[in-house]
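Ticket #4471: structure output looks truncated?

Reporter: J.K.
Steps to reproduce: submitted the chain below (386 residues) through the standard prediction queue, then opened the result file.
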Amino acid sequence: MAEAGLEAVAEEIVDEVEHAMDTLLDAFSPFKNKLNWLLIALPLAIYFNYDHNLTMAFLFSMIAIMPLAFLMGKGTEEIALRTGEAIGGFLNATFGNAAELIIVGLAIYAASKDPDIVDTMVTVTQASLIGSILGNMLLVLGLALVWGGLKHKEQTFNSDAIQMNGTLLLLAIVAFIIPSALHHSGGTSTDVEIISRYAAIVLLVIYGLALLFQLKTHAHVFATEPGHGHHEDPTMTNKDAWTLLIAATVLVAWMAHILVHSLEAAVDEWGLPELFIGVILLPFFGNAAEHFTAVIVAGKDKMDLSIAIAIGSSVQIALFAAPAMILFAWAVGVPLTLEFGMLETAATFVAVLVVNSILADGKSNWLEGAMLLGSYVILALAFLQL
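Returned output as attached by the reporter:
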């Protein structure tokens, strides 16, 4: 009897493992999702990295991150279907930013090990953080508003939630402006580092309080109004969704490791400005999860979720990722600060004002999305000229 019981348990475990493997294979199959054809870049990135062709390793690792980030988004979307749109948007924003966090975290760690690349890695890290904020607010949200507006003449959403996130972004802009103002007022580099670290701690505390406000004490404010979008059933089990999420995250970390270590070679070979690579290229590929998820759900008239992903992602970068990287850099001895530069700070400030103005009425259409995309193109051209 005991042996029969053990055999039954063993068979059940084998069945679960086989089911999980089948689910993963389906998720990674290019025949199920055309974007997965880009996964061919993954083995190419590994090959060129070991062949010491760093420029090609950089290119293919950056391309490989896009489908992997999408798979991370698919996993989180499946998990989010079992929650409300507020928590679902938070989960999508959190894991959608995982690729970006891995890239900048590895860049800071690489800088701590090699003093010769500190300036390059600090510049790219700061640019990448700003680029993520701008990309989510202007590019991702712009695409979502255009796609949703083309399918639905006018879309509505919870403006109260947007106003709170807009205020949080303005608070983050204050924290970005003060170190620069201190420096231009005669403060030393040490002064800028100190104020950046204290400001980072304040931003992290505010972010924690905002999560408490959003998910606990005032959750009703962020609840989706009845009739928005339509109900969808999960297509994966919760365990399979988490398995996909973890597998994709591990592969993203591997590609990010290759990307960071080949970045300087790509800068020298291509002659592209470090700011352009940091502000435009890395966030574009790293935030692919938000690009696809936010746009897809906007087309389904789930604008609360779409905006929660796009704006929530910007808030998370500004109030969590950037401050966390400041403290991490402090711990490993890298002089990373919140002094992002005049153009980067001004661009972020203007972007926040534009987004807050467009979303203030709780309604959206495709023209407003086109305005955001136009703003993003202008900023991209500006960074390309530096």
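Triage note (M.O.): checked the attachment and the full token line is present. The two ends are 75 Å apart (CA to CA).
Status: closed, working as intended.
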